[in-house]
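Glucose-fructose oxidoreductase
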Amino acid sequence: MPLLNAQPVQSTPLRLAVVGISHGHVGWILERKKPDVTLVGIYEPNKELGERNAKEHHLDPALFYTDLNKMLDAVKPEAVSVFGSIKNHLAAVEACAPRGIHVMVEKPLTFNNEDARQMQELANKNHIYLLTNYETSWYPTTEKTFQLVNDSNYVGPIRKVVFHHGHEGPKKIEVQPEFFQILTDPAQNGGGAIVDFGCYGANLMTYLMKDQEPLSVTAVTGHFQPAIYPKVDDEATIVVTYPKAQCIIQASWNWPFARKDMEVYGETGYIIATNNNNMRLRNTQTKGEQTLRVTTKEVTVYTDPFSYLADVVRGKIKVPHNGLYSLENNMKAVRILDAARESARTGKTITLKK
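Predicted structure tokens:
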């Protein structure tokens, strides 16, 4: 989606509504008290779930609606944040885009190309922002890695990137029942670990490669806990090939602990971002490996996605064409993810046609 013309900068709070509350991370926005955003409405078709969250988060029951269109027309939000199943992202955009309401979905944008194309068309036709929120977009080490790779040429041309994303599994970390239900339903989530955590590497690699088109995708999935996850994979390895680089995405619900880290290897060095703040790096000009701690004092990065959304809508910032939240980036991420699911299903490498 081309960058929209910046609107006159406003200081009034962004009128934000929430679409769906079955996603386990919705508590962040329901508990949020910062003045840049005002929560004006919440759509949730499950009345019992809505009532439970109203009580748990001390919210006015009048904020809750069981009909999406009625909620949008009644409270007239400027933007919505979507916290339902991935499959329901399209329905949210179908309702919001014609009304000129901007949309931010939780990662990934969606899990198949057809839904992604429809969402892109709706966003472009109705001139709305359609953003995708990933936890790794808030990491100072993500931005620092990008700067080292693309601005200072610290590692030289990228040759291999390895991503490790995941945790012990939604059952072991005790996600909410509603969230567990959608995560383990292939119709709602598109798959298990391959979607839940495979999407991170697809998003980040597209960013690091500055929007370069991949050539092919090969994926293998595992089913190590069938008694817990009978319908979806819990282990996935995705190999994405580029003309002169390779990306390996290791997505798992079987790690002994939660992790989100990446290793970037170039012709002249490497960068290993072990978490949101810590890095190890080395190149041919340094004497051995160096450690680096990166915070928001060293790099400019939003650590709150709702602040990012508010500033985008208010015209305070523009979404970079290949930015981590951008529609352009996330269309490519979906393309990689969809090809990975097809490769795992067929046992074949999927060539991505231009």
